[in-house]
Specification:
Layout lengths: L7 E2 L7 E4 L3 E6 L5 E8 L5 E3 L6 E4 L8 E2 L12
Parallel strand pairs: 1-3, 2-6
Antiparallel strand pairs: 2-7, 3-4, 5-6
């Protein structure tokens, strides 16, 4: 059985908006030790979603890949991902 991958995004830069190439993802806030509870967010048909913990606005951009974001490097990469 294939493992479903849900991308995790962080906002270390503290920007108000992050564009992502997926509609379902996890927000972790900032990277450890400054992260908040990892919360699953689903934009549905709306195309945007605000994280209830850190208030980051996530916006869907169909031109981006599943691991891409604007600003760049907001994808959380763990040791097991590397």
């Amino acid at each position: 059985m294939a493992k479903a991958i849900i991308p995790h995004f962080h906002n270390d830069a503290g920007v108000p908006k992050i564009s992502v190439g997926v509609r379902e993802f996890m927000c972790v806030g900032a990277t450890q030790p400054y992260d908040h509870p990892h919360v699953y967010l689903d934009m549905g048909d709306e195309g945007e979603k605000v994280c209830p913990y850190c208030s980051t606005l996530y916006v869907f951009d169909k031109a981006l890949g599943a691991s891409e974001s604007v600003p760049e490097n907001c994808l959380l990469v763990t040791e097991e991902d590397a």
